[in-house]
Structure formats: C-alpha cells, structure tokens
Amino acid sequence: MKTYQKQWPPVPSGSNDPGQGSGQTSRRAGGAKNPWVKQGCQLHIATYNARSIGNEERLTELQYELDRINWDILGISETRRRGEESIRLRSGHILFYKGREDNSLGGVGFLINKRISPNLQILKTISDRVIYITLKINSNITIKVVQIYAPTSSHEDEEIEVLYDEITQSLTENKTRYTLIIGDFNARIGEQCNSSQYVGQFGLGKRNERGTMLANFLEKEQLYIMNTFFKKRPHKKWTWASPDGITKNEIDYVLTPNKHIVQEVDVLNSFNTGSDHRLVRCRIVLNTKLERAKKFNSTQYRIDPDTIRDNKSIYSKRLTERLTKETTSSHESLDETNNRLVKELKETTTSLVSSKTKRIEKFTTQTKQLLERRRELIKDNKRNTVEYAELNKTARKMAKQDIRKYQENRIEELIQQNRGLNIFKKENAHKKEMIKLRDGQGNITEDRREILKVTEKFYTGLYESKIDNEYVRKANSDHKNRICNVGSEDLPEIEEEEIVKALNQLKNGKAAGDDNIIPEMLKEGGSLLIRELKSLFNTCLTEGRIPQDWNTAIVILIYKKGDPSNLENYRPISLLSQIYKLFMRIIANRLEFKLDAYQLYEQAGFRKGMSTIEHLHTVRTLNEKVTEYNIPLWIAFIDFRKAFDTVEFWAIIRSMKNARIDQRYIDIIYRH
Question: Which of 160, 218, 396, 410 is least enclosed by beta carbons within 10 angstroms?
C-alpha cells in the first residue's frame, strides 16, 4: 500500500528581491553598529498605509514598487479587501488580510516575502484593525509582528480604547521571544515629555490628545516607540501629508519591547503608490542564523511544458547523448536505475530551459515611465502639485488598461492554441492557503505545524480499515487460489509499444511529483529513453516491487465549499511520480479487459462505452406506470461521504481475485 508524505502545498523558492535602501545612513542615537549584522539574521520589516489594494492593478503597482527596495515583511493599512484570507500571489509572496464583511472600508494585511514565507508559523486575526503573524527563526527564537490600523480623529475615544485592548490581546496570545507592533496609529506622539523612557527625544511636532493616549499605552505595556530614537531631519520623519501639502505629521510607528534588536528606522520618500502616507521601514538584527522550515519549502522548480514541446528535437538529442554517455552497471538496483533516469531527465531539461520562474510584465514601458516620473516628482517635493495629481491619475488609468490588455491578449493566445479559458483562470488565480483548522475536538489552531498534525491524523484515520483487523489479516493472507496466466508461468514482458501507448494516454500539463518530472519530459524523450523505461519496468515486473521513491506523494488539499476550517470540506490530491503513473497505466491497460468483463451490465457508471441513458429511461418509465396505476414509489439515492477515500483496500484485492487477475499483478499493487 502506498505511503504518503504530508507536506504543505508547494512553495516557490527564491531569494530576496534586490533593491535599494532609502539612502539614509544615520544610526541609532548613542550607539554603534551592531556586531551581529554580518553573522546574524537581518530582517527588513515595513508598514505602509496603501489607501487600497482592493483590485489587481493596485496590488500589481504595490509589488512593482516593492521590487525596488529591500523588504521581508510589509504590514498594510487600509487594504479595502473584504473578509479574511491568505493567498499566495503569482510572484510567490503571501498576502494575508482581514477586512469587513459588509463593505470595503479599512482593513489590515501583511505581504510576506517568498524568501521568509517558509518560516511562517501562525497567521491570526483579532479584528479588521489588528492582525499578527509569528515567524520561527530557529528552534529557540520566534518573532511576532502585529499590524494595526487605528481609527481617525473623527471616531470616538471608545474605539481607540477597544483598539488598544485588541493590541494587548495580540501581545498576550502565542507568546514569542521578540515582538514588533507596526501600523498607522493616527496619533502624534511628538517630542519627548516627562522624560519617558519609552519615547525618544527625536519625535516630530507636538503631541495631541490621541498621542497622549498612545503614550499611556506605551507605559502600560512597556513598549518603545522606535521612530523617536533615531535622529533624522524633519523632512525624513513625517509619514503623512494633508491634501494641501501644508500639514505633515508622523503618525505611522514601529513599537517593540525589544529595543536592542532595532538597528534603524527609515521613512522611504521614493516609495509611493499614490497614497498620502510614506512607507516606514525598520531593520532588525537577531543574534542567530535563519533556519529554513524545509518541511514547508519545496525544492520544485517550474518548467514550461511548451518550451519542451517547441524544442523537442533538441531535448531528445541531448537526453539521448546523456543516456548514451552514462555507464550502467549490470548490478544496478531498481532505486539506482530510477534515480539515474530522474537525474538525466532533470539535468537535460534545466540545460534547455531556465529553472527560474518567468517574470510576467503586465505594465507597458509607457506606464513604467509614468511611475518613474511620479517618483521623481516626489523626490523634488512636488507631491501636492497639480502635475503630480494629474500624473497619478493618468498612471492608475494606464495601469488598469495594461492589465486588461494583458488579459485580452492572453485569452486570444489561448484560443488560437485551442486551449480553454480554464487555463487562463488557473494562471491568474491566486492560491488560497489554509490559515486555521479545527481538530477532532472542535478546537481551532492557527499554527501551521499543528495544522499539519491535525491533517495527518484526520487522513490517517480516514484511510484506516474500519473492519476487524483479524478479519482483514485473514482476507489478505488468503493465497489458496493464486491465479496465474493460463499456459505460462512467466508474465509477458512490457514492450515498447505498450510504453508508447501509455505515454499517449498521459495528459499534458499535469503537475510533477516529488521527483519534479512532468509528462512532457517523458513524452519527448526519444527512443532510447523508452528502452531505458522498458528495462526498468520489466525489472519491477520480474522482482514484484517498485523503487522506494515511487512510494512518496505530495498531498495537496483543495478547498471545495463550506467552513474553511473544517477538513471535511477539502479534497486531497496526491502528486505522484509521473514515471510511476506511466508504469501503473501499462498495468491498467493489461487488466482493463478482464476487469471490465467482470462488471455486471447494470453497472454503467465509470465504464468506457457505457451510458446511463437506458437506466434513466427505465426509471422514468417506472415513474409513469406507478403514477398511472396510483401505486406508491420509493427511490433511494445514496451519496456516500468521502466514498473513494473510505473504500476498504482488502475488498479491492478480493474483487480483483474474483475477477481472476493474475496474483503477481495484485502483489505489485498491494505491496506498495
């Protein structure tokens, strides 16, 4: 029986996007450079009031700006997206947000860089104004980042008090070693008052009433407001500007009880998506190295199948040359043969195509020039001019047109290739990620590692036999009626024609298994690859076993409908080795005739060349007759929950024996 390796859905790997800093070289007042910077873990954590990322063009514009700077985590205020969701963008970054259900006002979110996403541990929402994430840096160190969006001055003070209670709740839940609270506080903390140790001497402007409430909260929770501990010029400290450009305040902050880990807090003037806020970024350094959570970080790389098909002659020639040069031993084991073929297939493919994900450019050169011009106006302090307002409006209009044009061109291209619109939907859909799950006792967990344990326990119980173990053992050990091929003690060898037929039956565009082999790599491999596969498959048939790597599957859960925290509402998909699927397709082709002949005529579903039309006609006729003669009629419709997942494996083996399937085929299927 196949064993399953539970993994988080594949996560594209990659390094941090190269970018530029703000150009500011100031250090924390009264301190020197931290000696941990070179040998420790350095993270860039930023917060930004985006004034909306509710549509595709605003989200694309935000990512375009982020490509120019160093960042690991971006907290976002005013996302203006409804509901709660965690999605993986096509860029590989994770967008986690919480908004209102009834409208698109307000909302908070995080954008987590793909470089750091494997270390995500918990994603938790407190309200549409407070959310937090926790990262596992290594086995001993975790860090929590809380993003907030405070009510504006037009709201009552009671709402501010509720916000601070929610922040306190986020601090007490899921304790971590280090904590950061970032976001738009809509309060002026101003210059230091009463020699408070939690407010530095480099605040901007005068403190207002909301600033006093914030200062009291700092004292209560023992939090340092790190913006005020770094000496900067006034024009490099303000984070919000009024529409007329006259009033400029510092209202976006970085708070932490761990003052020593923050090495710098900058306000980036060049970063802008048309908001009236500026991005605030802090650099933290931890005295440790970042350990990647390999369990969540797949090493899979993306290969464009069209590239292989378009260059099939070159691909086939290179693969043949590699297989010819590779010396094989007569004592080579099954696992060694399989590993050698996988290695040659992957290395040939990577020599033909780039292993990096192709970057999709949705903005035209003209739109990029407009965004660059807008950035220049900001640098020249022309943020509040008529020219800037008109340019910003034009840039957003052009961005919307570019994305629509890109979608139209892609749809037209797919139609010309005789491919369906489902391909386009799949390409542009963001992958939803599971952020919380309910266990068997009804308790909800947000820890991703606990989610894995709950999932594994659920499906282990689902796949376990529900029949008495002794009865199952006796059924499995029944070898009295071992059936072999009539007139032959040996199974017929697998021929090349069978492999070619099975290859044609494999569908294109299917995902790779744990070995990263896609069907196109096998289909375009050439005659020498088919001979190598023939040798491998016949060895499996002769020895009655398969390579160990074929026993591993990547399990992906696909959400159907209903409560997302209930595992019953997910459908599991197993990504198996394509070489293994090819082998089993050959076995299925051999057994198809016998299995089909064994079925009763009444079984019309899931059979080739059969239809349920006659059955439906019988039911309709019966219904008409009982209505005519006024006879009661009962029709039972049976819908089993998780029907295919709860079939007893021993019953399948017994049915195959009853269908007089050769025992050696049964052994290959059953033992693995």
Answer: 410
Is the predicted pLDDT of residue 297 greater than 50, yes or no?
no
Distance of CA 176 to the CA centre of its chain: 24
Label residue 84 by pLDDT band (50, 70, 90). very high
N-to-C CA span, the chain: 4
Total residue length of the chain: 672
Distance CA 532, CA 340 (A): 10
Closest CA to 286 of 71, 137, 174, 180: 137
pLDDT > 60? residue 373: yes
* DSSP H helical ranges for 464-518: 469-476, 496-505
Cα distance between residue 320 and residue 500, in whole Å: 17
Q: Positive or negative CA dihedral for 331, 334, 335, 340?
A: positive
pLDDT of residue 308: 86
Residue 91 clears pLDDT 90, i.e. is over it = no
Q: Where are the beta strands (DSSP E) in 287-365?
A: none
C-alpha 129/C-alpha 162 separation (Å) is: 10
| pLDDT above 80 for 134 | yes
CA-atom Rg of the chain in angstroms = 31
Beta bridge partner(s), residue 46: 74, 281
- Residue 207's pLDDT is 93
Cα 546 to Cα 45, 112, 329, 588, 666, distances in angstroms: 48, 41, 19, 16, 13
Mean of pLDDT values over 243-253: 91
Sort 39 into a burial class: Cβ within 10 Å, 0-12 / 13-18 / 19+.
exposed
The amino acid present at 250, given as its one-letter code, is E
Mean pLDDT, rounded, for 218-244 = 93
* pLDDT, the chain, mean: 84
CB within 8 Å of 643: residues ≥ 6 apart: none
SS3 (DSSP) at 614: helix
Residue in this structure with the two tokens 């986690």, named with its chain if needed? 96
**Residue 627 pLDDT > 90:** yes
Instruction: Say how far apart CA 42 and CA 281 lie, in whole Å.
Output: 13
What's the whole-number mean pLDDT along residues 308-314? 86
Cα distances (angstroms) measured from residue 74 to each of 96, 226, 440: 10, 17, 35
Q: What is the pLDDT of residue 217?
A: 96
| pLDDT above 70 for 299 | no
Which residue has tokens 């708070």? Answer: 255
- CA 670/CA 477 separation, integer angstroms: 12
What confidence category does residue 179 fall into, taking pLDDT thresholds of 50, 70 and 90?
very high
Cα–Cα distance, 334 to 237 (Å, whole number): 65
Rounded CA-CA distance 457/627 in Å is 50
Q: How far is CA 346 from the centre of its chain?
A: 23
Give CA 356 to chain center in angstroms: 17
Q: How many Cβ atoms are within 10 Å of 213's Cβ, its own excluded?
A: 18
- Cα dist from 177 to 138, 142, 197, 199, whole Å: 11, 6, 21, 22
